[in-house]
Amino acid sequence: MRKVIYSPKYSLYNLGKEHPFSPLRAEMTLDLLQSLGALQDYIEPEEVQPEELFEIHDKEYVEKVEKVSAGETVEDIENFGLGTQDNPITPGMAQGARIIAGGTKLGAKLLLEGEAKKVLQMGGGFHHAHPRLASGFCVYNDLALAIKEMTKQGWHVVYLDLDVHHGDGVQDIFYSDGKVMTISLHESGEYIFPGTGWLYELGQGMGRSLKLNLPLEPFTEGDSYLEVIEGAVVPALRWFRPDALVVQAGADPHYSDPLADLVLTTQDFERIYRRVFELADEFTKGNLLITLGGGYSITATSRIWTILYLLFFNLPLPEVLPHEWRKKWGEKLGREIPEFLHDLPNPFDEIPRKPEIVRLNRDLVRRLMDAVTADWL
User: Fold this and answer.
1) Angle CA(168)–CA(170)–CA(174) in degrees, nearest 5?
2) Residues designated as active site
3) pLDDT digits (tens, 9 = 90+) for 211-238
């Protein structure tokens, strides 16, 4: 059974017209699916209440977020990561974040109760939010809330982060938790935000050797990326044998993304998503929860998430995108919309450093496996 979760109220989480984390990304995706005649019925979640967030966030932090979102003046709010360029304070921000968190938490409940085997949450993925800190466009960590819902019922969970930025908030919250393995494939923090996610961040206490980081070289392309999945993610799943796989499906590893330097194509994302579904079937009896995430080239992101959605329902992928949809969004965004679902030939096919990048990524996998497998035995 496959379920989709979404609410038009997700758009309440709007950090400003010029902010890259725009609700238009999901709206554009859903409109494309509607134009293709592929949009299925979805479940609308209820918002979580502030006190439910105390499972993962500090009470003082939640109270301050709620107050500033309601227009109240709060001292020292910058110490909590709010009021910054990345995380500006906007009206309704807290409610929007709680509705999105409610969606991801609902996804966990559907898996736990056997109401679904695979769930696609068409929002969320706020992986940078920490217990007492808003960061990287993220206020409340919906992913951690859903994972916590599962572990409270005794489930073991693997969290797989495919966003181009390190999933630092989720890792932080579960750093000592023996029921949660986090695996993050991201561009090296040497080059981009948040500057974390190093190989030596392996967890502590009961969580030791359960926090896996793969800081990839800039200009990593699809073949090398998939090789890293085979070399690190597959053996980790095989050993840990989780009850569920939670995936943050950020679209920002795409080569056109303005905030990062990986060079995946839409064709690569198709291969990656197909592999994720296979891994869930093989290692978690199909239990899979996927959220969205980053993705700041809106014309690429809407196509990538459309590919994810169509594959989720085993629907065919069209070659050409609907003309009326392209015209509508071209006028709305003031830019040309690609004619095809998949990318044209990748301009990064010939990467001068490709052999070196492949070698460095292979070495990264080897060193990570050397670091953790002694504890796995």
Assistant:
1) 115
2) 128
3) 999 999 999 999 999 999 999 999 999 9
